[in-house]
Design a protein that fits this description.
globular; Glutaredoxin; Grx-like_ET; Glutaredoxin domain-containing protein; Thioredoxin-like_sf
Length: 84
């Protein structure tokens, strides 16, 4: 894996958030999880880093922002974390 900082912005009871966490763990990718529900600072940070996106999950890998459902994010996340 490339040595990149990974941050996952989540909300509770989110199936797509859980699926992304499982993917990152399965790929042995360390990540920081930030729950944006009830944490205005984490929400503001997510919006700033992801061009105003307001709905979790948002996955930040380095400066790249991935958002949308798990099946939309999965191929892009894998491409970003796997060596080229």
């Amino acid at each position: 894996m490339k040595n990149l900082e990974v941050t996952l912005y989540t909300v509770p009871d989110c199936a797509d958030c859980e699926a992304i966490k499982r993917l990152l763990k399965r790929e042995n990718v360390p990540f920081t999880e930030k729950n944006v529900r009830g944490d205005p600072e984490a929400l503001a940070e997510m919006q700033l880093r992801a061009d105003g996106v307001r709905i979790a999950p948002v996955t930040m890998i380095g400066q790249q922002a991935f958002y949308g459902r798990f099946d939309e994010q999965r191929p892009r996340i894998l491409a970003a974390i796997r060596p080229s």
